[in-house]
Amino acid sequence: MSPSRPGPSGGGPGAPGASGDPRAPDAGGYGAPRRFWRALDRRRPPGVATLDRSWRSPLRGPWLTAVHGSVLLVALPLVIVTGLLDYAAYGPRFGQAFPHDVGWLRLPVFDWPTRPAWLFRVTQGLHVTLGIVLIPVVLGKLWSVIPKLFDWPPARSLAQVLERLTLLLLVGGILFQTATGLLNIQYAYLFGFDFYTAHYFGGWVFLGAFVAHVVLKLPRLGTALRSRPFGAELRTPVAGTRPEPPDPDDLVAARPAPATVSRRGAVGLVGGATLLLAALTVGQTLDGPLRRTALLLPRGRDNGPGPNGFPVNRTVAAAGVRPEETGPGWRLTLRAGGRTVTLDRPALLAMAQHTAALPIACVEGWSTRQTWTGVRLRDLAALVGVDSLAAARVSSLEKAGLFRTAVLAPNQVLDPDSLLALRVNGVDLSPDHGFPARVIVPALPGVHCTKWVSDIDFQGRADG
């Protein structure tokens, strides 16, 4: 055993504390109640000793754990913050973010901005892309500390119980959030519960555990990183790879085997896997050549030819919108107070047309920038005579689904690039992209850019 690791009884016959005096120093590092922890140590479950001897990699230790941890320390806050921002983008004050009722975990109320127009594209793209590319780093960090998850006794003091609890929530939280997130972006709802609710509350549990873990372990991380020069460690070949000295957390193997991989190789393996996932993922949030490398796109890379050849999240067939509903008999109904205006598509095309190049971004992480043409939403609000706009409720011909209606905030309706789009890239919208008319608003989540629009109810502040 390493000098810092107690034997099964927590100390030999001559060790301090072996007399049974609870006030004496304890060689096993036990805190109060010491007798309880020592009794646990004496009653080791079958196989614990064998398992403890099986962790023999000489690479495990504070330095490699700290390298992985420092990457996660920088990247995970970005994943957390972008996730919370994306929740805010759905408009929780209008009751259209999921889950609706979050109690005291609700975010401050504010209108999601329309500028910069690429805001949601960046926040959602970062959230999904980082969640995917960090998987090798998470697995590398778990590999480096996995022996600690099987320690016996599981704790040696009440303070360590709290530390282990935060570790359990941290490990369980990141595995749960990653696994369910991956299934969600691939539309594989195998888990039998509402993804949005579980992901939101699971995110808060993980955030609490993450903050607690950082507070507890940040000093150790700094000490471990300073213990071995990064550049020198990455130049060390397999033949020169040696175990680290015994550490207070017992990360170093008690009986290390000869090295078969250097720490340079271990870091390179994790880094290479991270870069590979980035290459397979990042193209889904970018237009251009990198989109051809986005093999992990949930809807694939073949979106058809022509100006309408960009990703579709929900097709017209999946939405159950029939051809006769979008044919010549289609009408758009505008309402404000007691006033109603009905327009057909030729009437909309006869109005002043505005063209804007805007991105559309989906919760699954893909996004694309296209050129949209149509009538400004603020012109439609003026046409129906709305004063002092409070909100606009947009309804689709789609009969069911979580997002068949969307409520737009005043800043989203009044933005000069917010459109009821009739055409895209110089041609009519295809049925899958929302023909005869769809909403497109800068920085708005794609599911709220309602397709197959049938009604827009402009609500004034006096109505509100």
From TrEMBL:
Top-rank taxon: Bacteria
Transmembrane segments: 63-85, 125-146, 167-189, 195-216
Residue ranges, annotated region (Disordered): 1-30
Keyword Transmembrane among UniProt keywords: yes
Record has Transmembrane helix as a keyword: yes
Domain Oxidoreductase molybdopterin-binding: 329-459
Keywords assigned by UniProt, alphabetized: Membrane, Transmembrane, Transmembrane helix
The protein, known as: Oxidoreductase molybdopterin-binding domain-containing protein
